[in-house]
Fold this protein.
Amino acid sequence: MTTLHGSIDTPCFMPVGTHATIKGLYPKDVEEAGAQIMLSNTYHLFLRPGMEVIRKAGGLHKFISWKKPILTDSGGYQVFSLALLRKLNDKGVEFQSHIDGSKHLFTPESIIDIQRDLGSDIMMPLDECVHYPCTKDHAEVAMKRTINWAKRSYKHKNEHHGVNPARGQLLFGIVQGATYEGLRNICAKELVDIDFDGFAIGGVSVGEPSNLIYNILRITALVLPVEKPRYAMGIGYPPDILEAIERGIDMFDCVVPTRYGRTGTAFTSLGKVTIRNSPYTEDFRSLDARCSCYTCSNFSRAYLRHLFNAQEMLGLTLLSLHNIYFFLDLTRKAREAIKNNQFSEFKKEFLENYNNSSCV
Amino acid sequence: MTTLHGSIDTPCFMPVGTHATIKGLYPKDVEEAGAQIMLSNTYHLFLRPGMEVIRKAGGLHKFISWKKPILTDSGGYQVFSLALLRKLNDKGVEFQSHIDGSKHLFTPESIIDIQRDLGSDIMMPLDECVHYPCTKDHAEVAMKRTINWAKRSYKHKNEHHGVNPARGQLLFGIVQGATYEGLRNICAKELVDIDFDGFAIGGVSVGEPSNLIYNILRITALVLPVEKPRYAMGIGYPPDILEAIERGIDMFDCVVPTRYGRTGTAFTSLGKVTIRNSPYTEDFRSLDARCSCYTCSNFSRAYLRHLFNAQEMLGLTLLSLHNIYFFLDLTRKAREAIKNNQFSEFKKEFLENYNNSSCV
């Protein structure tokens, strides 16, 4: 995939920088860990520091000192999961900030303008997310509104194409439809008719069981054109990522690596390591013998455990960096396996090791 | 100065790694910022993770992945400032851990053994610190005990020299005597008669006014041999460091750069910047136009302010890194000025800018 700030090999994992920072990590270290692209959240940036500051900074890339591509979401998910007192109608969504209660309106058009100003390499249109479980009627209304908003987003972006710097920014469509195959099918087909630069599958990993997630990814991917990138929003744990890749998904984002890192859990090729546990007190091995991240190249489990026990920030940042590296490395290895036509074997071997946590 | 892990140009600043970590910073970044040596605290390491773990790790350098020299203090200061229920006599000091109340005994001999096991490049002997203000009688008793302990430390280290890995580790003497010139003089002279590898001035910056600190540094330095390094323990703020260098001090350590960094204050050539202040909301300049640290090379005040407002860890670590760089850079520039015989001019110019905080 080619974007304004460089090209991206897929399948790829996008570290998440919610408040204009990948929590606890220097951009240089995230880049060095192999990140090709990061994700940031329109809803959060819009509220704090606000668009005035980011516009004056010259866009998000300059503001946060990130030279590679950035994908921004539309804020749709956060409005539905974080914001207070939202009022939804076809025009858009009114909501109150979860930070200070201030009132705001997001419309498909304003969300495109915001992402134009952020300078996102990949924009997402405003969509309506539903919770799980959700009735088919409710899911259908939300899905239809999502299609309508997608059309308006596409139109708005193109109408402004010649006169604003949005030229070259990519816009994806977002497929909604909850866990209903029929709705997902309709939504995907309608969006494919619009010439989006790629397609996201939204409203997954919102509490439903894994088999439902995998099924929706599979049946949706079947409808989407092979030559355009497919992005499974908010997916997921390492096994989920591999299952999704097998079903034709190209892009992933998840807060899990940094969130788990902050709370003391490392992902390794042999499963998860809870670093505070006492067996690690005198364990001078690295977190993962197969990992060559900065953390694993320099520090033992015993040291990392000590840092968590002493409530030292360095523990959080070293585990977060390792976890980010682990997720990036997983997709890097998946790309290699795909090239060598060995993805099934790779996936099988990875899952065997990963699920055999007795070795850790 | 030459140590087991390399040589050090003086005057030098030593970043402090209390719990076996310079708070929030990767060792690679501290090294890149120009650190030649770091300090760690025997008292803290002894209590957590404990000597068993560090011995098994192969010493402190390996445990924390720091390749350059390490100076460890003797724990004397922490026993007097942090520990619970201490009982002091000529043998040593019994105390209870401030973490879990467990009882321990430090003797001059055990403190040498602990630092041998840590693998410190520069060891400090157990000393008795007093508070400010302190009667002359009390200061004299503590000073005499400090001399006695220094002799025992020296003897113990040398007796074990042939049979343990302490060969090559340096041992400094610590001058005590509170704010009493006479006591400082006696202590310094007695210690100089012992063949220490360098001399520390302890019990300064414990609450007394700056002019008293400067005076004690000056009169003590006059007694110490010029060919051996002099270390002012716990000093200080940038102006203190320059005043001390002028009075013949070679080595400094202070928690101020990281502590201030964590609370949102940056040191700059034009004085301190409190990054949360609203004038920085749209200030897209770096913290310090004269600084070339990672933070100043990549991030604006507006971004750093945003990080602190959003309570993001990255703000703390970027400000800590900048502050560490600033202190290292200050001593680097002092060395250059001394070489060029321009220290007075350098100091004058630095202080003029630094105290003219209206420019910030």
